[in-house]
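Sequence in, structure out.
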Amino acid sequence: MPATVFPDTMGRRHNPFAENVYPVEMVEETRVSPWFRLIPPGIIVAGTIFAVVYGWYAFQAERGRVDELFRRNAKDHVKAVETGVLSHLEAVNSLADLFTATGEVSRDEFAAFAGSIRDRIPNVKALEWVPRVHDGNRAELEAQAREDIPWFRFHGGPRRFAGDDAGGEDRFPVYYVEPLEGNEAALGFDPPHHPIRQDAVLRAVETGALSVSAPTDLVQGGPLAILVFAPVYAAGADAVPESVVGLAEGVFDVGAIFEQSLAMLEPTGQDLFLSLIHISE
C-alpha cells in the first residue's frame, strides 16, 4: 500500500512517517571563520615565543649574577694575595730598620728579631743579613763568624753558581740566616755567578728601594723562591749606593705565600686560577 502523503499548511507534500524532517530552506549550514581556526596554533606560537624570551632574560640575569659573583671573588682573591705579599715585603723592611736603628746587630739579636717575624709569618723560608764584603774586610768577617759557627766560610755554592772570582769587587754574601736549621748551605753563600740574585742585589743598591728577584732555585734546595732585598746605609750617610753597608734579605716560597693568603677566604664554588708573572726590564 503506498504511503499516504498529506499536504502541509504551506501546500507542500508531507510524509507523516518521517521524523525530524524540516523544510530545506530552514536548514542553514553553520560556517566557521578561518581566523577562528588560527587561534589554537597562535596560542602555541605565542607561548613558545614568551618562553624563549623569558628564558633569554632569565639566562642574562643569571649570567650577570654569576659574572658579578666571579668579579667579586676574583677581587677578593687578588686582594688577599696582595695583602700577603705586602706583609712579606714589610718583614724585610722591618729587618733593614733594625740594622739602621742599632748599627751593629749580633747574631743572637738577629736570631731573636727574625724569630719574632717568623712567628707572625710562619711560611718564611729564611731571613738573612747580607753585608757588603770586599778584600779589605773579608778575612775579618769570616774570622768573626767562626767564633759563633766554627765551620763558617764564604763559598760559591754548587758548580752552577761557582766561577772565577776576579776579586776587587764588592760582594754581598749571606752572613746571618734564620732559621739556621735547613738553611746551612745558604750561610756564607757568595756566588760569583748567579744572575738572578746579582740583578736583584744591584737593583737594591743602585735604586735604594726594595728589590724582588725573579723566582729562582735555592742553594739549600726546596721549591722555587723569590729573594727580597732592602738596602741598609751607614749611620748618618746619604742614601747613595756608596753608603750601602749591607742588605736585609727575605727568602719566600711563592706557593706558600699564595696558600697562606687564600686560606682565610670562604669557599665560593668557583674555580679561580691565579698566576704570578715576573716582569723584568
